[in-house]
Amino acid sequence: MSTATVAWRSPSNIAIIKYWGKHGLQLPRNSSISFTLSTAYTDTRIEFAEAPEHHIAYRYDGEINEAFAPRVVKFINSLHHEIPVLSRLSLSIDSVNSFPHSSGIASSASFMSSLALSLCEIEAKMTGTELDMQKVSHIARLGSGSACRSIFPVLGLWGTHDEVQGSSDMHAIAMADHAAEIYADYHNDILIVSSEKKSVSSTAGHALMDGHVYEAARYAQARSNMSQCLEALRSGDAHALGRILEEEALSLHGLMMNSSSSYILLKPKTLTAIERIRNFRAETGHPLYFSLDAGPNIHLLYPASIRDAVLSWRQEQLDPLCERVLEDRVGEGPINLIS
Known about the structure:
This protein is an alpha+beta fold. The chain has 8 helices and 14 strands. The strands form 3 sheets. Strands 1, 4, 5, 6, 7, 8, 9 and 14 form an 8-stranded mixed sheet that branches.
């Protein structure tokens, strides 16, 4: 066959309930739920053709990426039993992010979800079948756990939870229909305090949860917080959701600091920003809250109704602490860039 092309844009996400700790083949120790974002995304384009020899080439932002390419090749080769057609193809893969790579904004989530979408579309084209989003989420999970949630608009939940019918450790499920309208266009300003590559990878951080002194307590906390989170999402109680956002974010970083190989990803300016956010909330009563991924950068979350008040204050009080600010909001999920 002649060369054909698929291309997908897939967003990052910000977890409300954090996934930290895994077992088996990318299976979570606790369920997690996240907002799907809009402007923090990865574009992945794959040119493919049948070839005598299976071959994979990977470029990031137009250049060969010596550090990351082996991971991409290894991942795709591990999928031959999941997507058999890949074994007879030559693949030329290009990806680019709209935000700094490896800085704690879940770049693996956006990349692996866009890659999974592209690979599953190749399978669909070659077999004459429909694109199966549940399978896409499953494939994305194998590449990066949090990536499986980016497949769905507004909210994605991953991991079995007693209160959510259809929830699974194997793939994420859509949760937009379980949330009040206030969250459909929730704002998420990403304050990039530092774009430096993280000193410890998320993979290494997950591994340190095995035998962690607070392991059992953390998973109990996550289960309890998920129940409260689901109620806050249903009711539209932004303050209740915000309290969970902040508790989960600080618990995540507390677990890193208390690991057997302790490490700290927060920066001094991160802590300054947190203090200012809490002061603003105390003074105004506005439901402005923060979250953090595994890095120093702050996700500032709030409803669209207080956008004007937050923007003027943020530009004065928080922007000077940052290298840049990426203004984002809850979004509609991946986009097919060709069809």
